[in-house]
Amino acid sequence: MSEENKVPIIQFRNVSKFYPPHTYAVRDVNVAINSGEFVSIVGQSGTGKTTLVRLIIAEEHPTKGRVIVGGWDITNIRHGDIPLLRRQIGVVFQDFKLLPRKTVRENVAFALQVAGAARAQVREVVPQVLAIVGLETKMDRFPHQLSGGEQQRVSIARALVHRPKILVADEPTGNLDSINTREIIDLLVKINELGTTVLLVTHNRDAVNSLKKRVITLDQGIVSSDKQVGRYVL
Asked: Which residues contact 40 (CB under 8 A, 6 or more apart)?
């Protein structure tokens, strides 16, 4: 896609988030992430990375400024509209948040069922997303029968069921060894190549440096660096 045709899918316009009595989690953040980009957000603990994630998925509202996702100004989003927003954004966390008594298939299906999807849609979509993450042969296993990397793949599959425009991965490799970390990063790249915008929040220096993609660095809530081909430098 040429530069002039790129459309921001996430925009932070002069965004600050203040927690009384005297803490700014983020301050005066101006960032535009284009549709189809793969962006890593890095910084020390407590620099505002998770706050940005919470603002994108409307778990938090900015104290000042505007947050726009997919052309939708969600700064003051109504509570009833949040589920619609969340279907456009898949989120993957460090802890896999799988239901231990449900199989891989059932864990992924559950994300569709709670949104009111028809049975036919569930039957169609679940095998598709499990094939994307390479778990089509392990659909009937339970979480305890999987490695940590495989469990994270299930959580990624679950995040993809609504075909989101954006995938936010918040420390997705934090509990994984180096081999599984590499596989998860490769999977996120594959998902990005299929057209999904990927936002990776991570402390993993090697993963960020191997990607050779855009890196936004936060320092005490402020964007200290934003480079198109960046490295993890703190």
From this structure: 200, 201, 202, 207, 208, 211, 213, 214, 215, 216, 230, 232
Q: Do the beta carbons of residue 203 and residue 171 sit within 8 Å?
A: yes
Separation between Cα atoms, residue 67 and residue 186, nearest integer Å: 29
* Closest CA relative to residue 169, chosen from 75, 41, 59: 41
Q: Which residue has the tokens 């316009």?
A: 13
37 Rama sector, left if φ>0, alpha if ψ -120 to 50, beta otherwise = beta
- Tell me, what amino acid is at 37? E
Starting from the edge strand earliest in sequence, which strands make up the sheet with 8-19, in order?
Answer: 23-34, 8-19, 64-69, 72-73
Tens of pLDDT along 129-172? Answer: 999 999 999 999 999 999 999 999 999 999 999 999 999 999 99
Cis peptide preceding 127, ω within 30 of 0: no
Please report the domains of the chain, with CATH numbers, ordered by start residue. Answer: 7-88+168-175+200-226 (3.40.50.300)
User: Whole-model pTM?
Assistant: 0.91
